[in-house]
Write a structure and sequence with these properties.
The chain is an all-alpha fold and about 80 residues long. The chain is about 50% helix and about 0% strand. It has one domain: Ankyrin repeat-containing domain (Serine Threonine Protein Phosphatase 5, Tetratricopeptide repeat), CATH 1.25.40.20. The chain is globular, with a radius of gyration of 12 Å.
């Protein structure tokens, strides 16, 4: 079975009141496939109100596969 995912720019760019994004949440929880999907759809690793990013949260929680992917695939 094949699934097709369509992410709109609005969904990828949505920021909560705390300044968190789906990319930050995926990095924090170590969901590498979600991180890949979001980055592929144009998500940017922006800091929340506390200054945390997907990269910093992945690093703090020892999600090394996510850290490596973010370092290699972040827009410069």
């Amino acid at each position: 079975m094949t699934y097709t995912y369509t992410l709109s720019i609005m969904m990828v760019s949505f920021v909560t009141q705390e300044g968190s994004t789906a990319l930050l949440a995926a990095g924090w929880k170590g969901h590498s496939e979600v991180v890949k999907l979001l980055l592929g759809a144009g998500a940017r690793d922006i800091p929340n109100k506390d200054g945390n990013t997907a990269l910093s949260m992945a690093r703090a929680n020892n999600h090394n596969d996510v850290v490596q992917y973010l370092l290699q695939h972040q827009p410069k």
